[in-house]
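Q: Structure tokens for this one, please.
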Amino acid sequence: MSINKKNIATVLIIVVFVIGFLLGDYDDNSELDYLESYDEMVEAVESTEKVLTKLYPSGCTDNEDAVNCEVLFDNDYRTTDNWTVVGEKCEDSVVEVTLEGMQYVEFVVIDKFLKSTSSNVEKFAVETTTSKKIFNLNNEGQNWIDINEEVFLLKFSIESLYESSQLSEDCGISEITIFGRDS
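A: Here is the predicted structure, written as tokens:
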């Protein structure tokens, strides 16, 4: 091999090495830039977006000396305690909760757990300071009710029972969970 060919081969090897080094360095930097811009984007979104959380009542009243307040908002799914009334009169029974300041309530989950002795609630109402929404509850399980309002007060009431429902002091509603965001 002549000196000219050796020089060309050496120059080619050096050029390939330099190009490879530059491309590798460029690729690494672009990945870091991407990660930094992604982190900045996530941080910006998190700082402006308020996270959906469970909201807990700061106060509660009901027709039964706050017994239902304790049962319905304790988030203890191991118990089978339900909304109860005296005199087998679930209809028109009311539980009213206040929240800590104005809160944006997205939705409420009503857990209906029927025992053999439970009344079967058909129509259930959620009232805010600006509206009253009446919903049909499914036979059993979770019922999701959209609220989408900024409120400090929620009033829950049993409007009616299914026609074939037995009368009972147990109204068949085991838990109420409120989900929303800080205002």
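A few notes: Residues 3-48 form the longest helix (46 residues). The chain is about 30% helix and 40% strand.
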